[in-house]
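Journal club side-thread
Mid-discussion, someone asked how the predicted structure for our own chain would compare to the paper's figures. Pasting it here so we can look after the session.
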Amino acid sequence: MPRSLGAASGAAVLALAASLLLPGSARAADDGSVARDLGRAYHATAKYRYEPNAAKDGFLPADDCKSDPVLGGMGYHYAKLTNLGSTDPDRPTALFYVTGEDGKRRLVGAEWIVPSTGQPAPRMFGRKFDGPFDIAGLGRVYDRHVWLYEKNPAGFFARFNPHLSCP
C-alpha cells in the first residue's frame, strides 16, 4: 500500500493549494471554507490511492479512459452512484485513475456530479460547478473535478489535464 501524507501535512498542502490555485478569487472564501473542504476531500479520498480500496467501498470502474485530443485526459473513472448529487467533500461521485509506468493505476483526482434539473449550477470549493452538459447514462449534469493527486497545468479544478492521455 502506498505511503500517504500525514493528516496535518495533507491539510497544509491543500490549504496552500487553495490559496494559490483558485484563480482571482482565491481569497473570496476568507473564512477558510475552501481550504477546509479541500482538506476534507483529500482526507476522504487518500485511502483510494491504493486502488483496491475503491472497489471495496463501492466505486465501480469504467472500462474506458476519458480524454480529448486537444484538452488532455481525465483517466479511468470509478463511480459510486449512491454519491450522485453530493456536494459533500467527503462523498465524491467518481475517482479518476491513470495507468502508471508499472502498469498499475494511480489515483489522480476526484469528481462530484449533480444532475441538472434546471437549477443554477451548484457551488463547491468556492466556485460553480462546470456544465450543464450530457454524460452518457446520467443525462444532463453539472460536475466539479479536483486534481488532488496530480499537478494540472490547466488548473486545479479543470476538467482535463493536458499532461495526461489515454492508451
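Post-session note: The first strand starts at residue 60 and ends at 68.
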